[in-house]
Amino acid sequence: MDQNQFSSSSSSRSRTAASLQHTQHVTPVGVPSNLYALYHAALQLKQRNELGVYLMNLTVSDLLYQASLPLWLQYIFQDDDWRHREWLCQLCGFLLYENIYISIGFLCCISLDRYLAVVHPLRFTSLRSMKAAWMVSIIIWIKEIAVGVVFFHHKEVTRDRSNRSVCFEHYPMRSWEHPVNYYRFTIGFLLPLAILSISYLCVLRAVGRSAGTQPDQKTRIRQLVSSTILIFLVCFSPYHVFLLVRTLFERDCSFITGIFNYYHLSLLLTTLNCVADPALYCFVSEGARRGLYRVLVRPLSKIIFCCCRRGNASPINPASDSHEVATEENNGNPAVTLLNHTFRQNSNT
């Protein structure tokens, strides 16, 4: 074995080990947390809260992608050698693509819904109805499925120099992928990032101007907003940056060789949204957090640390926490309930 082969083999083993650790941690945590998120989304639907529509669609997208993770895990175990039929490769790649952009789409829907609820609590009520939420959700699914069909009608299993079957990726990148990737970067990433940033800045400004909000409540809302933007950037920014770099500069295999491990790491980071989504948008209320601690965190902590501590969490009533955002009238001034806290907007804001 020459030096190049040794470097390639060593790099491959290192990448495979890191990928396995990452995927094996996402699967056991992501599935129960998303099932728990699905339960709370159903409670919100029962209360006719349009936020539950977006949460349920977001969770369904995550669960569909996690159903394909065993095949991706086997693919990584076999050192990036796809040994199944090509249609399975197309399906798994399709689910990966759909999870990224459907998740981004529903994150934008949730951010806009909260923007309207907090900044304009008594206006645009028709946009915050159950009917509008279902219509928007259907449009997002149809749009992303249509784009995915265009992207995945090409041959997805190719042979590399070692005669291994590579799934989902082409090295070097094909010419037909360039316009698709420009679309993914601008419409699929930059535009949603702008929507998230602007809407949440407006939410922060509205909360800051509210005289009825306690300082600790303002801090909690700011932390939620900051965490949402941070997780969005961590999960999706690296992949889209490398996607753009590959599209601009990759013309042969020598270029991808230098960034291959970093590109794969950025792709693996996108799977973290399967854990982050329910944590951000379903576990923000006190009842949901206590329930999560009781059914998931406490048992895992006992297994990991071999502890016999007993939690003192009080019983929860999930139905009472099903509305994250609601509005009411009080002495002529609109009051907004956000994350089970109420603050009053001054009439001059």
From TrEMBL:
Pfam families for the chain: 7tm_1 (PF00001)
Keywords: Cell membrane, Disulfide bond, G-protein coupled receptor, Glycoprotein, Membrane, Receptor, Transducer, Transmembrane, Transmembrane helix
Primary location: membrane
Signal peptide per UniProt: none
Membrane association type: Multi-pass membrane protein
Annotated GO biological process: cellular response to pH
PROSITE patterns named in the record: G_PROTEIN_RECEP_F1_1, G_PROTEIN_RECEP_F1_2
Family: Belongs to the G-protein coupled receptor 1 family.
PANTHER family for this protein: LYSOPHOSPHATIDIC ACID RECEPTOR 5/SPHINGOSYLPHOSPHORYLCHOLINE RECEPTOR, OVARIAN CANCER G-PROTEIN COUPLED RECEPTOR 1
Protein's recorded name: G protein-coupled receptor 68
Species assigned in the record: Cyprinodon variegatus
Taxonomic lineage from the root: Eukaryota, Metazoa, Chordata, Craniata, Vertebrata
